[in-house]
Protein backbone atom coordinates (compact mmCIF):
# COMPACT_ATOMS: atom_id res chain seq x y z
CA UNK A 1 0.00 0.00 0.00
CA UNK A 2 1.48 3.35 -1.01
CA UNK A 3 1.71 6.09 1.54
CA UNK A 4 -0.39 9.17 0.96
CA UNK A 5 1.52 12.41 0.45
CA UNK A 6 0.35 15.35 2.54
CA UNK A 7 -0.77 18.05 0.13
CA UNK A 8 1.06 21.35 0.24
CA UNK A 9 -0.39 24.67 -0.91
CA UNK A 10 1.52 24.24 -4.17
CA UNK A 11 -0.02 20.83 -4.85
CA UNK A 12 -3.52 21.98 -3.91
CA UNK A 13 -3.29 24.91 -6.33
CA UNK A 14 -2.03 22.73 -9.17
CA UNK A 15 -4.84 20.25 -8.54
CA UNK A 16 -7.49 22.97 -8.35
CA UNK A 17 -6.33 24.44 -11.69
CA UNK A 18 -6.16 20.94 -13.21
CA UNK A 19 -2.54 21.53 -14.16
CA UNK A 20 -0.42 18.56 -15.19
CA UNK A 21 2.59 17.88 -12.95
CA UNK A 22 4.66 15.06 -11.53
CA UNK A 23 5.61 14.82 -7.89
CA UNK A 24 9.00 13.60 -6.70
CA UNK A 25 9.84 12.86 -3.09
CA UNK A 26 13.44 12.44 -1.99
CA UNK A 27 15.17 11.50 1.23
CA UNK A 28 16.32 14.40 3.40
CA UNK A 29 17.49 12.37 6.40
CA UNK A 30 21.07 13.13 5.35
CA UNK A 31 20.16 16.86 5.58
CA UNK A 32 21.54 17.42 2.05
CA UNK A 33 18.93 19.73 0.56
CA UNK A 34 21.16 22.00 -1.51
CA UNK A 35 20.34 22.19 -5.21
CA UNK A 36 23.21 20.00 -6.39
CA UNK A 37 22.32 17.24 -3.91
CA UNK A 38 18.65 17.36 -4.93
CA UNK A 39 19.66 17.03 -8.60
CA UNK A 40 21.73 13.96 -7.78
CA UNK A 41 18.89 12.42 -5.76
CA UNK A 42 16.34 13.01 -8.55
CA UNK A 43 18.68 12.29 -11.46
CA UNK A 44 18.07 15.64 -13.17
CA UNK A 45 20.35 18.34 -14.56
CA UNK A 46 21.20 21.58 -12.78
CA UNK A 47 19.60 23.53 -15.62
CA UNK A 48 16.23 21.78 -15.10
CA UNK A 49 16.25 22.18 -11.31
CA UNK A 50 15.12 25.64 -10.25
CA UNK A 51 15.44 27.56 -7.01
CA UNK A 52 12.94 30.12 -5.81
CA UNK A 53 14.47 33.38 -4.64
CA UNK A 54 12.53 36.15 -2.91
CA UNK A 55 13.62 39.78 -2.94
CA UNK A 56 12.21 43.11 -1.87
CA UNK A 57 12.26 46.50 -3.50
CA UNK A 58 11.30 49.93 -2.29
CA UNK A 59 8.68 49.92 0.44
CA UNK A 60 7.01 46.56 0.91
CA UNK A 61 7.27 45.38 -2.71
CA UNK A 62 8.09 41.65 -2.85
CA UNK A 63 9.34 39.87 -5.97
CA UNK A 64 9.90 36.19 -6.73
CA UNK A 65 12.61 34.94 -9.08
CA UNK A 66 12.87 31.37 -10.37
CA UNK A 67 16.28 30.44 -11.74
CA UNK A 68 18.29 27.26 -12.37
CA UNK A 69 20.32 26.14 -9.40
CA UNK A 70 23.51 26.56 -11.43
CA UNK A 71 22.67 30.23 -12.11
CA UNK A 72 23.10 33.36 -10.03
CA UNK A 73 20.42 36.03 -9.94
CA UNK A 74 21.67 39.33 -11.37
CA UNK A 75 20.25 41.91 -8.95
CA UNK A 76 20.60 44.74 -11.48
CA UNK A 77 18.73 42.84 -14.19
CA UNK A 78 16.16 41.72 -11.62
CA UNK A 79 15.59 45.29 -10.41
CA UNK A 80 15.24 46.47 -13.99
CA UNK A 81 12.62 43.84 -14.90
CA UNK A 82 10.65 44.81 -11.75
CA UNK A 83 10.83 48.53 -12.52
CA UNK A 84 12.86 49.17 -9.38
CA UNK A 85 16.12 51.07 -8.99
CA UNK A 86 17.42 48.47 -6.56
CA UNK A 87 16.27 45.20 -5.01
CA UNK A 88 17.74 43.15 -2.18
CA UNK A 89 17.36 39.51 -1.26
CA UNK A 90 14.86 38.86 1.51
CA UNK A 91 16.42 37.78 4.81
CA UNK A 92 15.89 34.07 5.50
CA UNK A 93 14.28 34.97 8.85
CA UNK A 94 11.52 36.83 6.95
CA UNK A 95 10.83 34.08 4.40
CA UNK A 96 8.18 32.13 6.34
CA UNK A 97 6.21 35.20 7.36
CA UNK A 98 6.06 36.59 3.83
CA UNK A 99 5.77 33.44 1.70
CA UNK A 100 4.43 30.78 4.06
CA UNK A 101 7.41 28.59 3.15
CA UNK A 102 10.77 27.82 4.76
CA UNK A 103 14.25 27.83 3.22
CA UNK A 104 14.74 24.60 1.31
CA UNK A 105 11.00 24.20 0.78
CA UNK A 106 10.04 27.50 -0.85
CA UNK A 107 7.86 26.95 -3.90
CA UNK A 108 6.97 29.68 -6.38
CA UNK A 109 3.45 28.21 -6.28
CA UNK A 110 1.10 28.81 -3.35
CA UNK A 111 2.78 31.61 -1.45
CA UNK A 112 0.66 33.64 0.98
CA UNK A 113 0.15 36.19 -1.82
CA UNK A 114 0.66 36.08 -5.57
CA UNK A 115 3.78 38.22 -5.86
CA UNK A 116 5.21 39.41 -9.19
CA UNK A 117 7.16 36.39 -10.40
CA UNK A 118 9.94 36.24 -12.98
CA UNK A 119 11.31 33.03 -14.48
CA UNK A 120 14.71 32.85 -16.18
CA UNK A 121 14.27 32.92 -19.96
CA UNK A 122 16.91 30.17 -20.32
CA UNK A 123 14.44 27.52 -19.11
CA UNK A 124 11.45 28.64 -21.19
CA UNK A 125 11.90 26.02 -23.91
CA UNK A 126 12.68 23.05 -21.65
CA UNK A 127 10.10 20.28 -21.63
CA UNK A 128 10.07 19.98 -17.84
CA UNK A 129 11.48 22.02 -14.99
CA UNK A 130 11.60 21.05 -11.33
CA UNK A 131 10.64 23.40 -8.51
CA UNK A 132 10.05 22.89 -4.81
CA UNK A 133 6.75 21.29 -3.97
CA UNK A 134 6.37 23.42 -0.85
CA UNK A 135 8.36 21.43 1.67
CA UNK A 136 11.80 19.91 2.02
CA UNK A 137 11.99 16.57 0.25
CA UNK A 138 9.33 17.32 -2.39
CA UNK A 139 9.82 18.55 -5.94
CA UNK A 140 7.34 19.17 -8.73
CA UNK A 141 8.04 18.51 -12.39
CA UNK A 142 6.06 20.96 -14.53
CA UNK A 143 6.32 22.60 -17.93
CA UNK A 144 7.75 26.14 -17.85
CA UNK A 145 4.61 27.48 -19.54
CA UNK A 146 2.33 25.88 -16.96
CA UNK A 147 4.42 27.31 -14.12
CA UNK A 148 4.22 30.77 -15.67
CA UNK A 149 0.44 30.44 -16.06
CA UNK A 150 -0.09 29.31 -12.46
CA UNK A 151 1.95 32.15 -10.91
CA UNK A 152 1.22 34.81 -13.57
CA UNK A 153 4.95 34.71 -14.20
CA UNK A 154 6.94 36.48 -16.85
CA UNK A 155 10.05 35.11 -18.54
CA UNK A 156 13.08 37.38 -18.62
CA UNK A 157 16.85 37.68 -18.64
CA UNK A 158 17.55 37.77 -14.91
CA UNK A 159 20.77 35.78 -14.36
CA UNK A 160 24.44 36.69 -14.50
CA UNK A 161 26.29 35.62 -17.62
CA UNK A 162 29.82 34.28 -17.35
From TrEMBL:
<keyword id="KW-0456">Lyase</keyword>
<keyword id="KW-0648">Protein biosynthesis</keyword>
<dbReference type="InterPro" id="IPR036754">
    <property type="entry name" value="YbaK/aa-tRNA-synt-asso_dom_sf"/>
</dbReference>
<dbReference type="GO" id="GO:0006412">
    <property type="term" value="P:translation"/>
</dbReference>
<dbReference type="GO" id="GO:0016829">
    <property type="term" value="F:lyase activity"/>
</dbReference>
<dbReference type="Pfam" id="PF04073">
    <property type="entry name" value="tRNA_edit"/>
</dbReference>
<protein>
    <recommendedName>
        <fullName>Cys-tRNA(Pro)/Cys-tRNA(Cys) deacylase</fullName>
        <ecNumber>4.2.-.-</ecNumber>
    </recommendedName>
</protein>
<dbReference type="InterPro" id="IPR007214">
    <property type="entry name" value="YbaK/aa-tRNA-synth-assoc-dom"/>
</dbReference>
<dbReference type="InterPro" id="IPR004369">
    <property type="entry name" value="Prolyl-tRNA_editing_YbaK/EbsC"/>
</dbReference>
<feature type="domain" description="YbaK/aminoacyl-tRNA synthetase-associated">
    <location>
        <begin position="37"/>
        <end position="149"/>
    </location>
</feature>
<comment type="similarity">
    <text>Belongs to the prolyl-tRNA editing family. YbaK/EbsC subfamily.</text>
</comment>
<dbReference type="GO" id="GO:0002161">
    <property type="term" value="F:aminoacyl-tRNA deacylase activity"/>
</dbReference>
Amino acid sequence: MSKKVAKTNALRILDSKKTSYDMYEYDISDELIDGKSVCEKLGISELESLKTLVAHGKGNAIYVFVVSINSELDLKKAANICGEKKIEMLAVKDLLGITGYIRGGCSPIGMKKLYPTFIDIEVKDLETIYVSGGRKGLSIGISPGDLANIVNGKFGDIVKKE
